Amino acid sequence: MMQSAETMVFGKTQKGGPAAAMQSAATFNERAGLVAHRQATDAVSSEGVMVSETDIPGARIITESVGGQVLGQFVQPAPVHGGGGVVAAQNAITIGDRPVDQSDAAAIQAAETRATGSSVTVPGGLAATAQSAATHNAATDRDEEKIKLNDVLWV
Question: Do residues 53 and 30 touch, judged by C-beta distance below 8 A?
Fold first, then answer.
């Protein structure tokens, strides 16, 4: 399912991406006799896989998830156009003490990608922490339990 979703968005399965890792794990588990060929986890069966795209100034962010859990994010640079076909400068972002949401996580991922030159989210890195915080906040109703941007940036 993830391979199909990746192919729809990227035009092919991403080398070293979530679909490739999932296929490798599934092949290993099937050969070990732990799962049947067409068997799927409850998360995949009930919630499926999702590959979503978010366009922000200067980048296109693709997020891949299974059962609501983010497995990978990729950032593809995109020019920011102003009038007359001239590339416009991107605006600075002011960060306040508010709960982290998905757009914040995407912006942090884009900034991390520009800074590192890598489009792969580093496990335990700032972008991964922001994504975890956004996922937590989306599942939490009480504002006092939500993780704030300052909490993520000062880790």
Answer: no
